[in-house]
Specification:
The chain is α/β, with parallel strands linked by helices. The chain is built from seven helices and six strands; from the N terminus they run βαβαβαβαβαβαα. The protein is globular, with a radius of gyration of 17 Å. A six-stranded parallel β-sheet has the order 3-2-1-4-5-6, sandwiched between helices. It folds into two domains: about 120 residues, Rossmann fold (3-Layer(aba) Sandwich); about 40 residues, no CATH class. The longest helix is centred in the middle third of the chain and has 14 residues.
Length: about 160
């Protein structure tokens, strides 16, 4: 599979290294060269992906990364706006078959999920896991935590 990962922080670089180890072709985009340097320091020789320094919402940068042939696009920068816009460009402009975006804000995550962008809200997952561990309850699966959006049932009521 050909995957483009936008964001070379801890999540992006670890995901890219894992996918590469499994035999997938991965291109990582980040605007900051030091992110690539830090990834190599953290992951060592396992971080062997193609890297492109650029802004991930720039269509020329995305084309340079091979988005027109990509099977998947994952946006995991530290900014919700960048992740959402990049995911929309990948999904709707370039018609990438599988597009995922990390979104910290639970309300935004739900809105964009309802609009067809597959989002992962690490805030909901983290808070839900901490809640369950704190109360000595079994940890649930990821999808159950993602269903705990603001305005819906809280962790205790969802059981």
């Amino acid at each position: 599979m050909r995957v483009i990962v936008l964001g070379c922080g801890r999540v992006g670089s670890t995901l890219a290294a894992s996918l590469t180890k499994e035999g997938h072709y991965v291109v990582v985009i980040d605007r900051d060269q030091s992110a690539f340097d830090k990834a190599v320091q953290r992951l060592g020789e396992t971080f062997t992906q193609e890297t492109i320094r650029g802004i991930g919402i720039d269509e020329d940068v995305l084309r340079q990364a091979g988005i027109e042939q990509a099977d998947a696009f994952v946006s995991v920068t530290s900014g919700d706006n960048t992740n959402i816009v990049a995911a929309q460009i990948a999904k709707y402009r370039f018609r990438v078959p599988k597009v995922l975006a990390r979104v910290y804000d639970p309300i935004r995550a739900e809105v964009y999920r309802e609009a067809g962008i597959e989002t992962l809200c690490t805030t909901l997952i983290g808070a839900g896991i901490f809640h369950d561990l704190l109360l000595g309850q079994p940890v649930r699966n990821c999808h159950e935590y993602l269903a705990l959006s603001p305005g819906r049932e809280g962790p205790a009521e969802a059981r």
